Amino acid sequence: MIDVNLMGSFNVIKAALPLMKDRKYRGPASIALMSSQVGQVGIYGYSAYSATKFGLRGLAESLQQEVISDDIHVSIIFPSDTDTPGVKEDRKVRPELTNIITGSYRDIMKAEEVAKKTLDGIKSGSFTISCNFEGQILAIATAGSSPQRSFLMAFLEVVLAGISRLVALFFLWKWYRSIKKWHAK
Asked: Are 75 and 30 in contact (CB under 8 A)?
């Protein structure tokens, strides 16, 4: 998983970046990395997958600092479950406890919805691209030291940081109660 999700992205960027830096047209260029909402918050049953998606965030944050002077903008996309063959297969084999924890807040999105939100976010120069309301809340709760090009979003991240942390804690406590209950059977 690390080879595909993290190193695959790294190697494509490594191959393309010299060409992007030497482009004749000097308008802005973009690099987009497809993460996942489990790249923002760990979920039971997704340890390896989540680690690779969290790694993409570190890559995106560092890379943005390295390429901004070349007018290259980095975006990282955090979709929820997306209607793909891989997700359909995953839902069949993932641990039952994962289904209990994720419950109704892991609704599946259409690939076309994710693609539209991704393209709109890249066109607007967004660093963090969330694909649904849950993703927006996660983006605010996990903003940390991520770049923010929108003053309004930066303001919301600061103002809502405490509240979003509290909401996140309630979800985490609920998940941990579910895990404890499951293992007590």
From this structure: yes
- Specify the pTM: 0.89
What CA–CA distance (Å, rounded) separates 164 from 170? 10
Which range among 47-51, 93-97, 144-148, 171-175 has the greatest average pLDDT? 47-51
pLDDT per residue over 37-58, tens digit each? 999 999 999 999 999 999 999 9
Residue indicated by tokens 């895990």:
179
What is the b/e burial string over 93-113, where b = at least 16 CB atoms within 10 angstroms of the residue's CB? ebeebbeebbeeebeebeeee
Q: Which residues are catalytic?
A: 35, 49, 53
Q: Which residue type, as a one-letter code, is found at position 140?
A: I
Residues 112, 123, 128: CA angle, nearest 5 degrees: 80
CA distances to 28, 34, 79, 166, 184 from 115, in Å: 20, 11, 10, 31, 42
pLDDT at 106: 56
Query: 149 in helix, strand or coil?
Result: coil
Residue 102 corresponds to which tokens in the numbers above?
A: 């994720």
Q: What are the structure tokens assigned to 35, written together?
A: 């993460």
Cα–Cα dist 36/26, whole Å: 31
How far is residue 68's CA from residue 41's CA, in Å, rounded to a whole number? 27
Structure tokens at 118: 């991704």
What is d(CA 27, CA 170) in angstroms, rounded to the nearest whole number? 44
